[in-house]
Amino acid sequence: xxxxDIDLNALSHALDDSDPDREYFLNLxxxxxxxxxxxxxxxxxxxxxxxxxxxxxxxxxxPSRTTQETYEEIEDFVESLPEDRVQDxxxxxxxxxxxFKNFREALMxxxxxxxxxxxxxxxRSRERLQEFLDVLGWAQPEALVTEVAA
Length: 150
What we know:
Elements: H1 8-16, E1 22-27, E2 33-37, H2 43-53, E3 59-62, H3 67-80, H4 85-95, H5 99-108, H6 111-136, H7 142-147
Antiparallel strand pairs: 1-2, 1-3
Helix pairs in contact: 1-6, 3-4, 4-5
């Protein structure tokens, strides 16, 4: 398998996913990416999942983010902002129930800060992709990784 066989956008999405109901696996032989959604799993899906787990030389689990990691990335971003009413409002949004939704809604009120968040989020997504490829021993030219999640 060549690195060019991998759908880097799909792999990047898998690495960014923080839904505990989904697991992703990369086939190291043909570069296919399989997704298992457990709340919708049939007996056939469970059997395929067991098959994937029983062949670790062929399949590599794609480490998804935890909700806590996602929250910490958002919190780090908010901490990096100037101390003003925008930062204060974003911190308040994170403190209330429904923190992710509140954060997205609060960002909509501040288009410039929203753009900063989107840029920071894309940068971190590319870093996660590069880190995963490095773990696999596949050097990825920075130019290609930069194009992913753009």
